[in-house]
């Protein structure tokens, strides 16, 4: 270990520098966020984190993540879609979707059927257990949506959905 490496390891990780260049340590709760007030992106991201955490907690017993739920719901509502169509419509990288479908297929929730019109493509369908599971997932997702409503109020939730509808 060199002298400069040893010094670097002893130094605390700075969060913010004092005017004289010295590091100041703060507990996370002490850090002021006033400079971010009014930034829509920051507020939306913080709310998204809360949304995902609550979704994962609410659906934790069934081990379904938000993206998996979206994929299952879209396939359930549109049986026979190609992998490319699902990836494009949901804004998921194709390679990531393939990995996600592999895991859903291993769990016997989704099946890939060779397309009758394009040998390079697969049509996506829910399996019978996948249809049953999706019904349960939807009940739990509705519980999650009730949590969102409790957090921000019914009118605010409805308004938020109206605002965000332009981005789907």
Describe the overall structure.
There is one protein chain. This protein is mainly alpha-helical and 168 residues long. It starts with a helix and ends with a helix. A hairpin with a 5-residue loop joins β1 and β2 (23-24). It has 7 helices and 5 strands. It has a single domain (40-167), classed as Winged helix-like DNA-binding domain superfamily/Winged helix DNA-binding domain (Arc Repressor Mutant, subunit A).
CATH domain topology: Arc Repressor Mutant, subunit A
Q: Hey, roughly how much beta strand do the residues contain?
A: 5-15%
Mean pLDDT: 88
Largest sheet: 3 strands, antiparallel
State the domain count.
1
The radius of gyration computed from the alpha-carbon positions, rounded to a whole number of angstroms, is: 23 Å
CATH architecture: Orthogonal Bundle
Give the CATH class: Mainly Alpha
Secondary structure category: mainly alpha
- Say which CATH homologous superfamily is assigned: Winged helix-like DNA-binding domain superfamily/Winged helix DNA-binding domain
Helix content: 55-70%
Number of helices: 7
Strand order of the largest sheet: 3-5-4
Which residue ranges are poorly predicted, with pLDDT under 50 across at least 5 consecutive positions?
A: 2-14
Order of helices and strands: HEEHHEHHEEHH
Number of strands: 5
Measured between the Cα atoms of the first and last residue, the distance is 53 Å
C-alpha geometry = elongated
List keywords for this structure.
mainly alpha, 168 residues, elongated, 10% strand, disordered N terminus, 3-stranded antiparallel β-sheet
